[in-house]
Amino acid sequence: MNNIKNRTLEYLRLFRFQTCAATASTPLIGGLVMGQRDIFLLFILLLIGILYHIFGFVLNEHIDIEVDKKSLDLHKKPLVSGSIPGKYAKFIIVLSCVCACALTIVFFPTPFPILFLLLAIVLGGIYDIFGKKILGSDFILGGGFFFICLSGASTFSNDFTSITYVVCFLYFFHIVFNNAVEGGLKDVYHDHLAGAKTLAVQMGVKIREGRPVVTKMFMTFAYGIRIIFICLIFLLIFQQEPNLWFDRYIFQISIVIFLTAILFVTLYKFLYISTFDRSMLKKLFSTHEITSYFMLLIALSPMFGLWITLFLILFPSVWYLVFNGILYGTLLQPLV
User: Fold this and answer.
1) What is the pLDDT of residues 194-203, one digit of tens each?
2) What does the alpha-carbon distance between residue 144 and residue 166 come to, in Å, rounded to a whole number?
3) What is the DSSP string of 269-284?
4) d(CA 28, CA 20)
5) Does this model's pTM top 0.85?
6) Phi and psi (nearest 5°) for 208?
7) Cis? peptide before 242, omega within 30° of 0
8) 211-213 vs 206-208, strand pairing mode
9) How large is the average pLDDT for residues 32-42?
């Protein structure tokens, strides 16, 4: 019995199951922005998002086995440790893809949802397979999230609004930042050893005597991507709908401004961190990512209403805390 439990936990760790809900919210929010309110169909979008998450992360883990073996911090990963055989990972990759496509074809039988989903899968796959060899591949993965969001939107209508495109671009730049800046800093040591062509490595970021050396070029890039994200948030606010720029939404506007301040404070902290502490970096990254997500939801709250907004805020957060506790025995960060 213990063996089955341990094996199940290892598979969930391989799936990065604690962050599944965050990825799954992408097509879900796409559908909601276009006006989808059918609970069952929204649940299907959630399942498709979870399957896309599993596909992307398991493929990434499978491709990065040899690179991850070079880092002592990552030796407990399921594929690195050998607790899950590589052939099983390949089966999961194919199965998750097939199931996501099947659900889309069955419940959303029009060309655009499956077309955009396939584009998201292709771009996600290119990133996972060639990401360490192609400079700027983070933009490819960002494109994958752009299309998975658009896929969710197209399940309700193909007459996309400007808000739909703004939200899709918000996901695009959010993912670019997560991978190029956060991922680049977090993994810079073993990426450098493995000769990976990440933007962080190419821009001269390195670890010297246990201290991160972050170049001005990389800082400019990081701040630039974040400023674009914030500009898109305020562009969203000024749209005819949701249009937060009224007195009755002063509370929401105040929250967005407060979250913007948190975003820049955490960004400053991890760009100027004095000692390479992977654990501390992951805590800062978690705070930064949650703040970004909350900004998006607050900006969309007049469209979604109170209950949908609360669900979208609480669901990924509670999911993360519960499964992170189950899988790693800690609430805020995974061990690997």
Assistant:
1) 666 788 878 8
2) 15
3) HHHS-SS--HHHHHHH
4) 13
5) yes
6) -125, 115
7) yes
8) antiparallel
9) 94
Please tell me the class of the 2-328 domain: mainly alpha
Rounded Cα distance between 244 and 318, Å, is: 27
Judging by beta carbons within 10 Å of its beta carbon (0-12, 13-18, 19+), is residue 165 exposed, middle or buried? middle
- Rounded to a whole number of angstroms, the distance between the first and last alpha carbons of the chain is 25
